């Protein structure tokens, strides 16, 4: 019996120890967070927390905070200054009104005398105004008689027979910024031709299409330009149709005309001008009205380009000169030269190499500069004077490309130095300002 009790006691202890081991094993089996889960949790915490600002961003934030802190103070000073300015102006006005009041009413015994003096003063003033009016009228009459008035200025102009064509057929080879510059240069050309006393007989803008036309439409002023022809076609229409394309019937019918009429008709045919309705007229794409088209023979057409080997020594009043309407920063070599050669048009260049041999820079000019040089030559008939009057001063500066780059770099360095000095001033404010900036609502809350 005693042995049985000992056996039962041993079994009970064994079961208790087994239960303790079971509890421990259960704890060991319970799932533990893996490394990936811990990484994801840390990453989520990083996403929730605001990003750390760089030193430069903290400086900008501090500067913005300072601006906001002193904003009310600045506004108060501005209001006080405006108030003082209004008060000073009001005081001056009241003082002037008081003086006028004393002058008009008079004071004491001398009031009547003062009134008589005031009346005499007003009388002299009226007489002076009348004299000024008479003198102005005399000057206007003298200007009309001498032909110097604005009305007679147009009548005094003596047009030069040559024609100028600006070829706008390079729309696809320019950037938007270059298109804007090209349209501005066309406006300068028109202005120069209007101001001179010896304008060219005709100013044409051909191949008006694409972005160039759109830019002109945005200006909304070129429709009112006077004495200008706008063509959607190319400048080839200058010599098309030529005299050889006129129908033989028109030549036969001229036999019935008188001798004077035949001579006039032959002259018109030689110049490419005809009275036949619609033959040499076109509908202007800008004004939508029919106009007479300017024509000439191909032999009288000269394309001006810096790539030509022929120097232009004199302007022919019967010739037509074409200027390439392109702003390309010298990207396209011999573009206008090759275009003229393909069409059998003679080319020439301005005599810059003859009269300005000392010019250190390239000899490529803008459209309006070329036009102004031609205008000046017509006025003075001196290439040297025309070139010196129009060429910009920077063309005479012997500055190399490396020197220009060094100057640009120096300017950038100066700007960088100024920024660094401003940053140092902000840093001198101390960490206290940075702490305040971090705590501001613009920075965001930190967790």
Class per helix and strand makeup:
alpha/beta
Rg (C-alpha, Å): 44 Å
- Give the termini distance in whole angstroms: 72 Å
The strand line-up of the biggest sheet is 3-2-1-7-6-8
Strand content: 5-15%
> How many β-strand runs?
8
CATH class designation of the domain at 161-241 and 279-396 = Alpha Beta
Q: Per CATH, which architecture of the domain at 161-241 and 279-396?
A: 3-Layer(aba) Sandwich
Q: Figure out the total of helices.
A: 16
- What are the segments in which pLDDT stays under 50 over at least 5 consecutive residues? 18-33, 242-278, 442-447
> What is the succession of H and E elements?
HHHHHHEHEHEHHEEEEHEHHHHH
Short description:
By secondary structure, this protein is an alpha/beta fold.
Features:
two-stranded antiparallel ribbon; 447 residues; alpha/beta; disordered C terminus
Task: Please provide a written account of the structure.
The protein has 447 residues and is of the alpha/beta class. Among the domains are: 103-156; 161-241 and 279-396, Alpha/beta knot (3-Layer(aba) Sandwich); 243-277. The chain is built from 16 helices and 8 strands. It has helices spanning 2-29, 35-48, 55-69, 71-105, 111-146, 150-156, 176-195, 210-219, 248-253, 259-270, 335-342, 352-355, 367-380, 383-390, 401-427, 431-438, and strands at 160-167, 200-206, 228-230, 281-283, 290-292, 301-304, 320-324, 346-348. Strands 3-2-1-7-6-8 form a 6-stranded parallel beta sheet, sandwiched between helices. Strand 4 (281-283) and strand 5 form a beta hairpin.
